[in-house]
Amino acid sequence: MTMPAIAPALTQGARRTAWQHDTTKMFTRLKEDIDAIMRRDPAARSRLEVLTCYPGFHAVVFHRFAHACWNAGFHWLGRWISHWARFFTGIEIHPGAKVGRRVFIDHGMGVVVGETAEIGDDCTIYQGVTLGGTSLYKGVKRHPTLGANVVVSAGAKVLGGYTIGDGARIGSNAVVLKPVPPGATAVGIPARIILPDAPSGQQGAKQEFSAYGITPNADDPVSLALKSLIDNAAQQHERLETVMAALDRLGEHLENTPNDRFDASELRKLMK
């Protein structure tokens, strides 16, 4: 006769334990998010300021509730929560998107994250960023996946269902249309890849955080190529001048018109 009474008690105790576990997990995540913002934003003066005045933090918290509803099958409710989150924060994150831990959306106004996007742990996203899709087919991977410690700078557009490797940097206003290797930097429209100059064996080393994805020696690779061509043309011109001077000494006088002059310094100024 006691068994029916014990079973509900055990069930109630299990539910209480699960609720306590979920509550502890929620507060742990909140503390992680706040601490991450304190580390990455020098303008953050206190945890209270982050808790009450940071729309990027609020958007991530809203998204956790919306994502839980989405995974539970309550799709309309998830969309409704994300809709109000966009209204209050200016940040639109689809409830189906997967957002990792300690993700910091700095400033955040105009950020759009699509349904099948995935954001890894410790990523930083600045205002005006779009993680968008290029396919109209439902049920496929349409939006990008960001690895851990990725920085996507202001105004960047990452479009397509490919992967941005761990520790990668996306420059301001870049339009990324292809995968980015781990630790690399993508700049330009369309984005071009700049690989790090780290020695072999250090590719997996963790990079220091760089605000707005600014990295040393991050010149546009097309500009570097043009500079090399200008330097090569200048060297060839100097050799021709030497050859003409030698022919002149031998008695072969070749006319050198002003149009034949090559001024590499002016071209170098344009490439700065």
Overview of the molecule:
By secondary structure, this protein is an alpha/beta fold. Helix content is 42%, strand content 12%. The protein has 6 helices and 15 strands. A 6-stranded mixed sheet has the order 3-6-9-12-14-15. A hairpin with a 4-residue loop joins strand 14 and strand 15 (192-194). Helix 3 packs antiparallel against helix 4.
Features:
272 residues, alpha/beta, 6-stranded mixed β-sheet, 5-stranded parallel β-sheet, 15 strands, elongated
Per-chain topology:
Layout lengths: L2 H38 L6 H7 L1 H17 L3 H15 L2 E2 L4 E2 L4 E2 L6 E2 L4 E2 L4 E2 L4 E3 L12 E2 L4 E2 L4 E3 L3 E2 L4 E2 L4 E2 L8 E3 L4 E3 L26 H29 L14 H7 L2
Parallel strand pairs: 1-4, 2-5, 3-6, 4-7, 5-8, 6-9, 7-10, 8-11, 9-12, 10-13, 12-14
Antiparallel strand pairs: 14-15
Helix pairs in contact: 3-4
Please give a quick description of this structure.
With 272 residues, this protein is of the alpha/beta class.
- What's the total helix number? 6
What does the overall shape look like?
A: elongated
The number of strands is: 15
Please identify the structural class as seen in this structure: alpha/beta
Radius of gyration: 28 Å
* Main beta-sheet annotation: 6 strands, mixed
Low-confidence runs: 200-205
Order of helices and strands: HHHHEEEEEEEEEEEEEEEHH
- Bin the helical content: 40-55%
Distance between the termini: 88 Å
For the largest beta sheet, what order do the strands appear in spatially?
3-6-9-12-14-15
- Report the mean per-residue pLDDT as an integer: 81
* Proportion of beta-strand residues: 5-15%
